[in-house]
Amino acid sequence: MKKSTLPNQTHMQSLKHVRKHELDSALEYFPQLSSGQPCRVLELGAGTGQQARHISDLGYKVSALDLPSSSYKDARQFHIDEYDGENLPFADETYDVIFSSNVLEHVVSIDKLLSETYRTLKPGGMAIHLIPSPACRLWSILAHYIWLMRRVTSRLMALTQNAAEAGDVPRTPQSRREWLGTLFPLRHGERGNTLTETYYFSKIYWLGKFRSNNFNVHTVSGNGLFYTMANATGAKLSINCRKALSRTLGSSCLIYVMTKNESSHA
Asked: What's the domain count of the chain?
């Protein structure tokens, strides 16, 4: 029997609610639909396809891409085409909106991908990207050790209970990297390390990156939610509680809204 590659289901359920709220925040910047004129949207790194499906249900014409190695491959709920993470398999000026959520920080060849989004975005089109914030990076370091304590507690409880009572027992790390990732918070994205990611998640870094790839950034706003990359509380915090925490601890994602700087290619 093939071993399931699905992520932890508690994590999936928590992520579902968070991503739904984040998408609702991003949709405020989407162009309004008009009769007889389809609005074409491309989602990069679509994961399960939850957000792509919701955008499609609203009436947008949606294409979705992700890597063949996506950990959400077996949980897809929308048609997702696979690509190499750099080259977009579409003609020039195809899309009215290019959207991503918690994706760009994982892209190694970020300049290549941004040049591709520029190429495939229509004149007057919008690129809307959600990227983790410095606050998310910093709070995730502390949250990692809360997660670790919960993991150790679950293992200790399993020693005194039978399998049925113990429930979802964390598995033992299988490699050196898994042990390191269990004992210490590792970097989340593709640049820097656990501490320097604070800079690579900052507005300073991303505004410079977008502008150097010929985009005009019009809006940068918080997603109005607090969460960490450590998933320390799982599904225990409600969306309303996460909203309230964000007012003190900061938004965990920033929403960047931009258009093409077409004068640079004139």
From this structure: 1
